[in-house]
Amino acid sequence: MKIDLTQKIAIVTGSSKGIGAAIAKELAACGAIVIVTYHSAASDADGVVDAIRETGGQAIALQADMARHTDIIDLLKQVKERFGKLDVLVNNAGIARFGPIEAVTEGDFLEQYRVNVLGPMLTIKESLKYFPPTGGSIINISSVGGQNPGPYTSIYTSSKAALNALTVSLSRELVNRHIRVNTVAPGPTDTEGSKALGLAGSAIEKDMIAAIPMGRFGKPNEIAPVVAFLASDNAGWITGEKLAVSGGMR
Q1: 152 an active-site residue?
Q2: Boundaries of each Ketoreductase domain copy (predicted)?
Q3: What's the pTM value of the predicted model, to 2 decimals?
Q4: Which tens digit of pLDDT belongs to each residue from 151-180?
Q5: What range defines the domain where residue 42 resides?
Q6: 76: CB partners within 8 A, 6+ apart
Q7: Residue 218 to residues 21, 92, 172, 197, 245: CA-CA distances in angstroms?
Q8: Per-residue model confidence (pLDDT) at position 200
Q9: Which of 2, 10, 198, 211 could make an S-S bridge to 88, C-beta 3.0–4.6 Å?
Q10: Looking at residues 75-80, what average pLDDT do you find?
């Protein structure tokens, strides 16, 4: 099945590395013009753009804190000025902090909910000004943990559960604007982020792998094609859904 996103304008938030970078590259390979957003890793974002251009794709990098309303407004205005519209929005930017509930602070809670829930909500709100009358596609990147939370992940997984609910509600609210809203929920994935959490070789990693029927972590390039499908007209009758890409983990 060919995925054709030719000349579609696509924003992928938090796409300087990991799953976001793989999604940006996949959308570009399908013909989209991709806006790679980054918070602070400018060189990584430039590397993603260079990789896309080297294979004949089109992309630019723009800086934004996707949990700051003013940054979001400015980002979307820049996209409008450069490209005139928006067709695809992938809310990928997110953070994870794991630990026992006794160690959780108010700051931990607010930071994760600000980035993982408030950020996508504000980005969707502002993006509605720029989708054409024919509509478009919004894909929220959640986590299989939003449905099946493990220990020591209460704040992160509850934020992803909130994102799942946001997807369903907005899919029903925006249907008359011809905007489809779906969620992709990855399972544990081998990324820079998972390494930064110290999962490699840990007991937590072993427990996670034991819970995955396919017996391994996923790879970012195994998640990206699912996002490209949902962004395309091939998924024209799909909205309000959550697709797990998790090696069978539930």
Answers
A1: no
A2: 8-191
A3: 0.95
A4: 999 999 999 999 999 999 999 999 999 999
A5: 9-187+226-233
A6: 11, 86, 123, 126, 127, 129, 130
A7: 15, 16, 31, 16, 8
A8: 67
A9: 10
A10: 98
How many structural domains comprise the chain? Answer: 1
- Residue 117 resides in a domain: yes
Q: What does the buried/exposed string (b/e) look like for 157-185 if buried means 16 or more CB atoms within 10 Å of the residue's CB?
A: bbbbbbbbebbbebbeebeeeebbbbbbb
In a domain, 102, yes or no: yes
- Spatial distance between the Cα atoms of 33 and 39, rounded to a whole number of angstroms: 20
Average the pLDDT over 108-115 and give the result. Answer: 97
CATH number for the domain spanning 35: value is: 3.40.50.720
Residue 117 DSSP one-character state = I
Q: Which residue of the set 38, 113, 130, 156 is catalytic?
A: 156
How large is the C-alpha radius of gyration of the chain? Answer: 17
- The structure tokens listed for 199 are 């999962």
Tell me: the pLDDT tens digits for 173-204?
999 999 999 999 999 988 876 766 666 667 77
